[in-house]
Amino acid sequence: MSFTQPKEEKEIEEALVKDFQAGNPDAYDKIAELYQKKIYALSFNLVRNQMDAQDVTQEVLLTLFKKIHTFQGKSAFSSWVYRITLNASYMKLRSKKKEPNISIDELLPSFNSAGYQQEKIQDWSENSESLLFTNETREVINKAVGLLPEKEKVVFLLRDVEGLSTEKVSEVLDLTIPAVKSRLHRARLFLRKKLSGYFEEYSSQKGEA
User: Fold this and answer.
1) Half-sphere exposure of 38 toward its Cβ, with a 13 Å CA cutoff?
2) Which residue has the higher pLDDT, 192 or 137?
3) pLDDT at site 84
4) Residue 175 has pLDDT above 90, yes or no
5) In degrees, to the nearest 5, what angle opens at C-alpha 177 toward C-alphas 176 and 182?
6) Torsion from C-alpha of 168, 172, 173, 176, nearest 10 degrees
7) Considering the chain, what percentage of its residues have pLDDT values greater than 90?
8) In a 3-state reduction of DSSP, which class is residue 69?
């Protein structure tokens, strides 16, 4: 489901931003309260570490406090916050040694000369609803998401995990809507292929039980 900010909520947020820019510290407290959980959730999905995500959250909130005067309202305030969060998360990742990502092309389906997919990939997403509540499955999915190349990963996290609309993701990342859709499609194909074996094995074990 796409996230669309209600008009009333957007107006309240815009008023808070103006109040804080005018020097009202109480407005900042309310802004921090509105965004702290969203900032932490997105940063954690990128850095995959609670302490690092907490560090990023504090850095972002501090940046908002120091640089609120630079926000000119050319895009939505929420898009500005998401961009700051992404930048802070990437800086945190660069400061640590990262395992190399698998190339997305290695896990995308292959097609023959006629344009047909050469291998049948089970659509695990149809069976995953009951599985998403198990810790083991969550861990498997998180690891697969972690293997996504950064460009596809961030689109997938914003669109499918955070629930932002395609238009909102386009604004946050300064990408065209077709580019967002293309990266999201590649991310979903990557994950479908990466996870299909796990869910196929899980279904077999469940059937034998």
Assistant:
1) 19
2) 192
3) 95
4) yes
5) 100
6) 40
7) 51
8) helix
pTM confidence score: 0.73
Neighbours of 162 (CB within 10 A): 17
Q: Using only the alpha carbons of the chain, give its radius of gyration.
A: 20
Domains of the chain: 7-94 (1.10.1740.10), 104-208 (1.10.10.10)
> Residue 53 pLDDT more than 70?
yes
Closest by CA position to 151, among listed 183, 192, 177: 183
- Residue pointed to by tokens 């950064």: 150
d(CA 60, CA 64): 6
What is the mean predicted confidence (pLDDT) over 155-183? 93
Burial of 170 per CB tally in 10 Å (0-12, 13-18, 19+): buried
For residue 95, what pLDDT is reported?
A: 87
Mean pLDDT of the chain: 80
Please name the amino acid found at residue 185.
H
45-54 contact pairs (CB < 8 A, 24+): 45/145, 45/157, 45/161, 46/86, 46/89, 46/90, 46/93, 46/153, 46/154, 46/157, 47/89, 47/92, 47/93, 48/142, 48/146, 52/92, 52/96
